[in-house]
Amino acid sequence: MASVMSRAGSGIRSFFATIWNTKGLARYMFWAGLVITLVFVVCALFAPWVAPYGFDQTAAHGVDFPKLGPYDSTHLLGTNDQFFDIESRMIWGARTAIEVVLLSVILAGLVGVPLGLLSGFVGGWVDRILVFLMDAMYAFPSLLLAIVFSFLLKGKIGSGILAAALSLTAIYIPQYFRVVRNTTVSAREATYVEAARAIGAPPLTIMRKYLFSNVVQSVPVLATLNAADALGTLAALGFLGLGIQPTQASEWGYDLSRAIDDAQGGNWLPAFWPGLMIVLLITALTLVGEGLNETINPALRRRRLKPVMFGPRVPADVVGTGPSGGTGGTFDNAAADMEGGRP
Amino acid sequence: MSSSAGSGSLARYILIRVILVIPMMLVLLTVVFILLRVAPGDPVTAAVGGHLPPAIIAQKRHDLGLDQPLYKQYLEYLGHAARFDFGTTITDNQPVLNVVRDKGGATLTLTAGAFLVALLIGLPLGRLAGRFRDSGLDAVIRVFGIVTYAAPIFWVGVLLVAFVATHFPSWPTYGIASAQTTYVVPSHTHILIVDAIYANYWTGVFDILQHCVLPCVTLGLLITGVIIRLVRVNVIQALKGDYVEAARARGIPEGRVVRKHAFRNALVPVITVIGLQVALTLSGAVLTETTFNWPGVGSALVNYLNERDYPAVQGLVTFFAIVVVIVSLLVDILNALVDPRVRY
Fold first, then answer.
1. Topology classification of domain B100-306
2. Is A17:A333 a contact under the CB 8 Å cutoff?
3. Residue in A132, A141, A274 nearest the CB of B282
């Protein structure tokens, strides 16, 4: 157990080392995205303490909130047409968004990754049929699929967080399937898999111990980008009135749809804030995803060269253990990273 | 699915690709059928239940063939879809094909305009970002691309409307044309702007173009983000090519190398992916049309959804599925024509 832990630890460390050693913009964009995302996560986790009011609260201390009230000391961003405090709605909205997105991405991964692994490893007719099914699903406009699913789930399990997450899950399964399946197909022929087969490892062991950790490396990038996309789709569903109902949770897309009439009348602030939240979180997640992609994908990666340091002159017999040249060290690092997850 | 022969002929590729449309269509239609006919229960009760006496509801069910066993309904549905018959709406009792015909023109106008906007903005920006990789310019363009892609269409739309309504009160902010134009222009092709040009009614054409600006820019910005990202990555990869190095070695100025050598080759994959953006554009059109009261297929779909008119939703979704399959077929064929390496 301890060895597994330490291996996971060194995996994470080498992963961050990869990011650290990447040159150029990708690194800064990654960190910027990560920081913004973390701010939202903190808001989501501590919403009851951060938000001044509840998401469906229309009065405090015996005083009713004004309708479309301007910003003042009691309502930092004003109130909207439903007498809600906009600032509180935004903070509670972060909780809803992150709950739904996390749930849907995890569910999609739980279904898509094993399915892709199996399909790629088994091959043959199973593979062909699954690929065909998934491609057909993938070709379909994602928003339409989500609309259809939430339309259906509305009648079955209502329109809460779980329903929204499930209707988003359906549209992302094919993506995990495709990525994992393609990686599996190419990894299946690798020498280490052949070796495993030669020593008599059963298929399930090969999939679990040898293929999984190699194939799963492309999943974080996909998951982050999907999370960004899922957030947009969730807001679109809310905007069309098919998402989470306002009594169940605070949702940015729904708030935006409520604010359209006010915007046409010239009061654009109630529409501005929820949209800004959506843009910020989607942008942040996209930056993280793209940053990961540029660091993990060797075709796009540019390595930062370590500055070459000339150490003090050393006696001849110690040469070789002293600090080596910068580029050499980096390349060793790169080679180590390439071998990273392989058992 | 690659053949052992390696490279087949173009004709063979196109033939196989066309034949593959049939199973793909079958899968999509089956999914639509299961989702919208089998899962939800009785569509007639959902749409008009409580408003009509049971006898009429039973009659409607019979008219729609809902009292037949499911496999018969399924086969009938496939047969109708093959003949481009998408059924009849319950709420306003008209063939879905008529809805598509009447509203499709507006959606087509919107998406064409949006693609124009996206290409005009996206191609030059993507090329600049790729050429000056990792510069400040690159950062600004990339963030612009990410933000335009990240910004919900309806938010951009609402903000544009609020801005225009405050500063240019006479500029139209919703609909496809003023009432006068729609009244005067006779309908031939069901595409309003084409009809207006055909009728030589230039005030109307100008009026429609004015109405187009906001929705097309809104939807166009979404696609711009995708195009910038794509062109940038492709230019970067094309610039690593040996032929680019060779061109540089011959002393051709860098601007010309990027423009004539790298950019052109970078465009080949872009064509494919732009074709694949049709699905995204359709999703975007639904939202744009809802935001701007644009009388297209997307806003029709949302209306039917709100009225719980399952047959109408099923018909429209079937239509979208067919459009997606046909477009992906066309994109693949176009791609095979452009790139000789694409063969089965």
1. MetI-like fold (1.10.3720)
2. yes
3. A141
